[in-house]
Amino acid sequence: MTDSTTLTAWVNDYLHAWDSNEPDDIRAMFTEDAEYRTAPFHAPRIGLDAIVAGWLEDRDEPGDHEFEWTELGIDGDVAFVEGETRYTSGRRYANLWVIRFAPDGRATSFTEWYMEHPESERDD
After folding, report:
1. Which of 115, 105, 117 lies closest to 12, judged by CA?
2. 65-75 and 78-87 as β-strands: parallel, antiparallel, unpaired?
3. Of all helices (H) and strands (E), which one includes residue 48?
4. What is the Cβ-side half-sphere exposure of residue 63, based on CA atoms within 13 angstroms?
5. Domain ranges in the chain?
6. How much is the pLDDT for 123?
7. Which residues are CB-neighbours of 16 under 8 A, at least 6 positions away?
8. What is the pTM of this model?
9. 3-state secondary structure at position 25
10. pLDDT at 30
11. What pLDDT score was predicted for residue 122?
């Protein structure tokens, strides 16, 4: 059973990996056979190598973003997170994360939804 302490530790690890982009930091958060979805209907990245490769392909640079989050709930081994990402470029996104945890606190599944904030500043 997942609890708030496990969720907070995992999100802190995620934020650290988001800034570091270090493969070992990314790998440490997921089980060997984990699935990572960048949107609910996209094919998942399955396994640590695919998760790391996709993360680095889509990477943000350290310091170009801020993330605030709130725990929406926990049901068994699944946690729900609402967040907001703000980039130094002015872009803003609303986020919803669904994370399924293994007993050791690593994620077996991660799915993110993100929507651009209507007041977001586009850089294109």
Report:
1. 105
2. antiparallel
3. helix 48-57
4. 0
5. 4-116
6. 54
7. 25
8. 0.91
9. helix
10. 98
11. 63
Bridging pattern class, strands 30-37 and 107-116: parallel
Q: Which 8-state DSSP code applies to residue 117?
A: -
Q: Where are the beta strands (DSSP E) in the chain?
A: 30-37, 45-46, 65-75, 78-87, 92-101, 107-116
Q: Among all chains, which residue has been given the structure tokens 């990996």? A: 17
**Rounded distance, CA 66 to CA 54, Å?**
21
112: β partners? 97
Q: What is the dihedral of CA 60, 97, 3, 78, to 10 degrees?
A: -130
* CA atoms of 30 and 25, how far apart (whole Å): 10
Pick the CATH number of 4-116 from 3.10.450.50, 3.40.1280.10, 3.30.590.20, 3.30.565.10: 3.10.450.50
Q: What is the pLDDT of residue 39?
A: 82
Which residues, given as ranges, of the chain have pLDDT below 50? Answer: none
